[in-house]
Amino acid sequence: MTSATPAPDVSVTVRFVEEADESTWKRLYAGYRDFYRLAPDDDVVERVWGWILRRENGLRGLVAVDEADGPIGLATVRTFARPSSGTVGLYLDDLFTSPESRGRGAGSALLARLATLAAEDGASVVRWITAADNNTARSVYDAHATATPWVTYDLQPARG
Hints:
This protein is an alpha+beta fold. Helices cover 33% and strands 24% of the residues. Keywords: Acyltransferase, Transferase.
């Protein structure tokens, strides 16, 4: 973690997702999917919104809220077991700030809230992955966390 981390904008707060956030959250999540070049899919966005709202699959949703503009960023997190240490961690699946709101501290505020949530939950770590070329986000992440040397693999389900 570096000491040159800019202070988050004091007008940005972080809270859990509420039903009233639906349209803004869906717009932000569609933007997240677009950023990662995932095909637009309203069904996926609707399904994930439902999971978060009902806290299914262990998912919890957070939003970074600007007092003037409303939600400007989101994070999706879930608990996972860490058998090697006998602890649990929080896994950050998604973190996104609207392009027009970047640089205002929403990402930093979300990460700070996740660190607090991990402490409240008794979690031993908050872990996530990002694209190697996502330099803008990585500069924020590097200010808050330590990159690991681990390599991620995806194994496809057997088709039978």
